[in-house]
Design brief:
disordered N terminus; 186 residues; three-stranded mixed β-sheet; alpha+beta
Length: 186
Protein backbone atom coordinates (compact mmCIF):
# COMPACT_ATOMS: atom_id res chain seq x y z
CA UNK A 1 0.00 0.00 0.00
CA UNK A 2 1.47 3.32 -1.00
CA UNK A 3 1.04 6.03 1.59
CA UNK A 4 2.38 9.03 -0.27
CA UNK A 5 0.41 10.67 -3.04
CA UNK A 6 1.50 12.14 -6.36
CA UNK A 7 1.22 15.60 -4.83
CA UNK A 8 3.19 14.77 -1.68
CA UNK A 9 6.86 15.65 -1.29
CA UNK A 10 9.36 12.94 -2.06
CA UNK A 11 11.13 11.39 0.91
CA UNK A 12 14.88 10.88 1.28
CA UNK A 13 16.77 8.12 3.05
CA UNK A 14 17.58 10.50 5.92
CA UNK A 15 13.88 11.21 6.42
CA UNK A 16 13.04 7.51 6.05
CA UNK A 17 15.34 6.58 8.93
CA UNK A 18 13.49 9.01 11.20
CA UNK A 19 10.34 6.84 10.93
CA UNK A 20 9.51 4.56 13.89
CA UNK A 21 10.52 0.93 13.62
CA UNK A 22 7.70 -1.31 12.36
CA UNK A 23 5.25 -2.83 12.30
CA UNK A 24 3.86 -1.58 10.09
CA UNK A 25 6.81 -1.99 7.76
CA UNK A 26 8.00 0.69 5.38
CA UNK A 27 9.84 0.71 2.07
CA UNK A 28 10.98 3.74 0.11
CA UNK A 29 10.79 3.48 -3.67
CA UNK A 30 11.75 6.43 -5.85
CA UNK A 31 11.01 8.74 -2.92
CA UNK A 32 7.51 7.33 -2.32
CA UNK A 33 6.79 5.67 1.01
CA UNK A 34 5.08 2.25 0.93
CA UNK A 35 3.51 0.85 4.08
CA UNK A 36 2.36 -2.72 4.52
CA UNK A 37 1.03 -4.84 7.37
CA UNK A 38 2.72 -8.01 8.49
CA UNK A 39 2.59 -10.72 5.81
CA UNK A 40 0.30 -13.71 6.00
CA UNK A 41 1.40 -16.80 7.90
CA UNK A 42 1.97 -18.98 4.79
CA UNK A 43 4.16 -16.26 3.27
CA UNK A 44 6.32 -16.35 6.40
CA UNK A 45 6.42 -20.16 6.38
CA UNK A 46 7.80 -20.13 2.81
CA UNK A 47 10.44 -17.56 3.73
CA UNK A 48 11.48 -19.57 6.77
CA UNK A 49 11.73 -22.83 4.80
CA UNK A 50 13.82 -21.27 2.06
CA UNK A 51 16.02 -19.43 4.55
CA UNK A 52 16.70 -22.67 6.46
CA UNK A 53 17.58 -24.52 3.24
CA UNK A 54 19.94 -21.74 2.16
CA UNK A 55 21.45 -21.30 5.63
CA UNK A 56 22.18 -25.02 5.89
CA UNK A 57 24.09 -24.82 2.59
CA UNK A 58 25.93 -21.64 3.66
CA UNK A 59 26.91 -23.17 7.01
CA UNK A 60 28.74 -25.87 5.01
CA UNK A 61 30.26 -23.68 2.32
CA UNK A 62 30.87 -20.36 4.12
CA UNK A 63 30.20 -18.53 0.81
CA UNK A 64 28.24 -15.64 2.33
CA UNK A 65 25.29 -14.65 4.48
CA UNK A 66 21.52 -14.42 4.10
CA UNK A 67 19.10 -12.05 5.79
CA UNK A 68 15.32 -12.01 6.00
CA UNK A 69 12.87 -9.09 6.06
CA UNK A 70 12.53 -6.75 7.64
CA UNK A 71 16.10 -5.69 6.85
CA UNK A 72 16.72 -2.48 4.95
CA UNK A 73 18.70 -2.54 1.72
CA UNK A 74 19.67 0.96 0.63
CA UNK A 75 19.87 1.15 -3.15
CA UNK A 76 19.87 4.94 -3.66
CA UNK A 77 19.18 8.10 -1.69
CA UNK A 78 15.46 7.64 -2.38
CA UNK A 79 15.08 3.85 -2.57
CA UNK A 80 15.29 1.54 0.46
CA UNK A 81 13.71 -1.88 0.02
CA UNK A 82 13.10 -4.95 2.14
CA UNK A 83 13.47 -8.10 0.02
CA UNK A 84 11.93 -11.12 1.75
CA UNK A 85 15.39 -12.74 1.70
CA UNK A 86 18.70 -11.42 0.45
CA UNK A 87 22.14 -12.97 0.10
CA UNK A 88 25.53 -11.28 0.15
CA UNK A 89 28.61 -13.24 -0.93
CA UNK A 90 31.72 -13.30 1.22
CA UNK A 91 33.54 -11.14 -1.36
CA UNK A 92 30.91 -8.40 -1.05
CA UNK A 93 30.43 -8.33 2.74
CA UNK A 94 31.58 -4.71 2.74
CA UNK A 95 28.04 -3.63 1.77
CA UNK A 96 26.65 -4.91 5.08
CA UNK A 97 25.87 -2.31 7.73
CA UNK A 98 24.26 -2.33 11.17
CA UNK A 99 20.99 -1.32 9.46
CA UNK A 100 21.15 -4.02 6.74
CA UNK A 101 22.96 -3.44 3.44
CA UNK A 102 24.07 -0.46 1.43
CA UNK A 103 24.23 -1.59 -2.18
CA UNK A 104 22.97 -4.47 -4.26
CA UNK A 105 22.93 -7.97 -2.73
CA UNK A 106 23.96 -10.86 -4.96
CA UNK A 107 20.48 -12.45 -4.68
CA UNK A 108 17.07 -11.19 -3.65
CA UNK A 109 13.99 -13.34 -3.05
CA UNK A 110 10.42 -12.08 -3.13
CA UNK A 111 7.50 -14.29 -2.07
CA UNK A 112 4.47 -13.02 -3.94
CA UNK A 113 1.37 -11.80 -2.16
CA UNK A 114 -1.71 -10.63 -4.07
CA UNK A 115 -1.27 -7.19 -2.51
CA UNK A 116 2.43 -6.82 -3.43
CA UNK A 117 2.89 -8.85 -6.63
CA UNK A 118 2.54 -5.87 -8.97
CA UNK A 119 5.18 -3.89 -7.05
CA UNK A 120 7.52 -6.89 -6.61
CA UNK A 121 7.40 -7.81 -10.32
CA UNK A 122 7.34 -4.19 -11.48
CA UNK A 123 9.40 -1.34 -10.13
CA UNK A 124 11.17 -3.36 -7.40
CA UNK A 125 12.38 -5.87 -10.01
CA UNK A 126 13.58 -2.96 -12.16
CA UNK A 127 15.51 -1.47 -9.21
CA UNK A 128 17.13 -4.82 -8.50
CA UNK A 129 18.17 -5.20 -12.15
CA UNK A 130 19.42 -1.61 -12.47
CA UNK A 131 21.38 -1.70 -9.22
CA UNK A 132 23.50 -4.78 -9.93
CA UNK A 133 21.62 -7.61 -8.20
CA UNK A 134 22.76 -10.75 -10.02
CA UNK A 135 19.72 -12.92 -9.43
CA UNK A 136 16.13 -12.66 -8.19
CA UNK A 137 13.95 -15.59 -7.18
CA UNK A 138 10.21 -14.98 -7.25
CA UNK A 139 8.37 -17.56 -5.15
CA UNK A 140 4.72 -17.97 -6.15
CA UNK A 141 2.45 -19.67 -3.60
CA UNK A 142 -0.34 -19.57 -6.18
CA UNK A 143 1.53 -21.70 -8.76
CA UNK A 144 3.93 -23.53 -6.41
CA UNK A 145 6.79 -22.41 -8.64
CA UNK A 146 9.92 -20.26 -8.48
CA UNK A 147 10.79 -17.85 -11.29
CA UNK A 148 14.51 -17.21 -11.69
CA UNK A 149 15.69 -13.86 -13.04
CA UNK A 150 19.38 -13.59 -13.90
CA UNK A 151 19.61 -9.89 -14.56
CA UNK A 152 22.88 -9.86 -16.54
CA UNK A 153 21.26 -12.36 -18.96
CA UNK A 154 17.77 -10.84 -19.16
CA UNK A 155 16.50 -8.09 -16.85
CA UNK A 156 12.89 -8.32 -18.06
CA UNK A 157 11.99 -12.01 -18.23
CA UNK A 158 12.75 -15.02 -16.02
CA UNK A 159 15.39 -17.34 -17.45
CA UNK A 160 13.61 -20.29 -15.83
CA UNK A 161 10.40 -21.20 -14.06
CA UNK A 162 10.96 -24.13 -11.71
CA UNK A 163 7.78 -25.96 -10.79
CA UNK A 164 6.75 -28.43 -8.11
CA UNK A 165 8.72 -31.68 -8.53
CA UNK A 166 11.69 -29.96 -10.18
CA UNK A 167 14.95 -28.77 -8.67
CA UNK A 168 16.43 -25.32 -8.52
CA UNK A 169 20.13 -24.65 -9.05
CA UNK A 170 22.05 -21.40 -9.30
CA UNK A 171 25.58 -20.38 -10.30
CA UNK A 172 25.55 -18.21 -7.15
CA UNK A 173 25.41 -21.38 -5.01
CA UNK A 174 27.69 -24.04 -6.58
CA UNK A 175 26.52 -27.57 -5.81
CA UNK A 176 23.24 -26.51 -4.23
CA UNK A 177 20.16 -28.37 -5.44
CA UNK A 178 16.85 -27.23 -3.94
CA UNK A 179 13.75 -29.30 -4.52
CA UNK A 180 10.82 -26.95 -5.07
CA UNK A 181 8.60 -29.60 -3.48
CA UNK A 182 10.55 -29.10 -0.21
CA UNK A 183 9.49 -25.48 -0.25
CA UNK A 184 5.79 -26.11 -0.97
CA UNK A 185 5.39 -29.33 1.00
CA UNK A 186 1.98 -28.62 2.59
Amino acid sequence: MQSSSATACKMTAAEFFLLPEGPPYFQLLDGDLYVSPSPRRYHQKLILRLAVLLQTYLDRTLLGEIYVAPSDVIFTEDTILNPDIYYVSRERMGILTDQGAEGAPDLVVEVLLPSTAKLDLGRKREVYAESGVKEMWVVSPKTSAVEIYRFPENPNEPVAVIGFGSSLTSPIFPGLVLLVSDLFKD
